[in-house]
């Protein structure tokens, strides 16, 4: 079965979970056509991301004339849908924070995707994230009278559902995927209860063959923490600077590695310098998958003080490596982690609780840390095997499509 995937910026260093999902579907015999609106504007350091970029068709890169021509050719095949699709784009734009002009651009992007769906005989398209990629998928699905679906990750979609017309997108979709039960509950809040059955739960996953065995816990001290992710307000990395400062005052022999990059990097660097923690905290920038795995293996624990999340892939990657995790008790995180068994769960935004958890972990014997890691590894292998999750998604793709709403 052919399926089109619609994405905004792809591939990006933080979107390896999308690549894993598509590869798992391809192992099941699916042909995945990758559409992205634009490429990542930074440097792709991972060879797997570079390979994905080579396989991706970039819509905006085709130029405005190609999109207008696509609209013309689609209009010849379905003139009524072309006009009513424009009305749908305008209606959605009036309700959305993006505005009417951007929705006209989304409409042209959708026309290009629709033309390619006709040419490649793609019967279904799926988007990741409920923002503009889902808008393009919704409009392309309408123009082609073919079903579309999308995966919602959060937290951004949950912060402003009306502003991105999320209820409208859910209503028109063949099905909608949430990556956790928590995420599904937030989507159910937005629509009539009669639509709840179309909201599915499919976890993001890891590829078990890449993690054939638990990795030995480092035996040496200082205790090493690692944090991985985009440097942004919602990830809470600035709390880690305060926490590390307090650990040093307490005489805890600890080091922290921050893997990633983003808009908060200058603020993090200033905070590290102001606290005099240059010898205790290292910033690596973005790393490829091998580099991320190496940093997890070199650490005693992952620490993730997020303010808002969906269900972070990096928690799964740490757990399958057999590392305990310190994370905040938010969103889908407690569905995977078990406090006291696989790590520590702390209230979001509570620096004191974060410090206590990090201090307790530093004082915990290696045997208990290893037991936590082993328990976590077993749990993530059961719950987040990407081939198992892709099988669920494949079943939804191949179900009998319902009638598209007008």
TrEMBL record:
InterPro entries: Glyco_trans_4-like_N (IPR028098), Glycosyltransferase_grp1 (IPR050194). GO terms for molecular function: glycosyltransferase activity. Residues 105-209 form the Glycosyltransferase subfamily 4-like N-terminal domain. It holds the Pfam family Glyco_trans_1_4. Keywords: Transferase. Coiled coil: none annotated. The keyword Lyase does not apply. PANTHER family: SULFOQUINOVOSYL TRANSFERASE SQD2 (PTHR45947), TEICHURONIC ACID BIOSYNTHESIS GLYCOSYLTRANSFERASE TUAC-RELATED (PTHR45947:SF15). This is Colanic acid biosynthesis glycosyltransferase WcaL.
């Amino acid at each position: 079965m052919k399926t089109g995937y619609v994405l905004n910026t792809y591939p990006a260093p933080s979107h390896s979970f999308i690549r894993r999902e598509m590869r798992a579907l391809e192992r099941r015999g699916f042909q995945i056509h990758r559409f992205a609106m634009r490429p990542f504007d930074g440097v792709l350091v991972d060879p797997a991301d570079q390979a994905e970029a080579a396989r991706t068709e970039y819509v905006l890169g085709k130029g405005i004339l190609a999109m207008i021509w696509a609209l013309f050719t689609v209009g010849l095949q379905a003139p009524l849908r072309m006009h009513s699709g424009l009305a749908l784009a305008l209606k959605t734009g009036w309700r959305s924070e993006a505005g009417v002009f951007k929705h006209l651009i989304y409409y042209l992007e959708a026309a290009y995707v629709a033309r390619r769906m006709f040419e490649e005989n793609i019967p279904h398209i799926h988007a990741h994230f409920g923002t503009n990629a889902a808008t393009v998928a919704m409009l392309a699905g309408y123009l082609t009278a073919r079903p579309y679906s999308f995966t919602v990750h959060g937290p951004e979609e949950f912060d402003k559902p009306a502003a991105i017309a999320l209820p409208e997108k859910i209503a028109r979709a063949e099905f909608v995927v949430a990556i956790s039960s928590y995420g599904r509950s937030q989507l159910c809040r937005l629509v009539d209860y009669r639509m709840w059955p179309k909201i599915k739960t499919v976890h993001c996953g890891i590829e078990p063959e890449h993690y054939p065995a638990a990795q030995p816990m480092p035996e040496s001290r200082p205790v090493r923490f690692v944090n991985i992710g985009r440097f942004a307000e919602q990830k809470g990395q600035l709390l880690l600077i305060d926490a590390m400062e307090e650990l040093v005052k307490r005489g805890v022999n600890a080091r922290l590695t921050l893997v990633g990059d983003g808009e908060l990097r200058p603020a993090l660097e200033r905070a590290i310098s102001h606290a005099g923690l240059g010898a205790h905290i290292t910033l690596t920038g973005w790393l490829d998958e091998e580099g991320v795995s190496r940093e997890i293996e070199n650490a005693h624990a992952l620490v993730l003080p997020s303010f808002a999340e969906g269900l972070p892939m990096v928690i799964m990657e740490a757990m399958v490596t057999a590392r305990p995790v310190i994370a905040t008790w938010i969103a889908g995180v407690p569905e995977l982690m078990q406090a006291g068994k696989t790590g520590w769960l702390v209230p979001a935004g509570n620096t004191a609780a974060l410090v206590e958890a990090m201090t307790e972990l530093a004082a915990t014997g290696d045997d208990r840390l290893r037991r936590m890691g082993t328990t976590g590894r077993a749990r993530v292998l059961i719950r987040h095997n990407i081939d198992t999750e892709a099988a669920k998604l494949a079943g939804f793709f191949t179900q009998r499509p319902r009638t598209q709403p007008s």
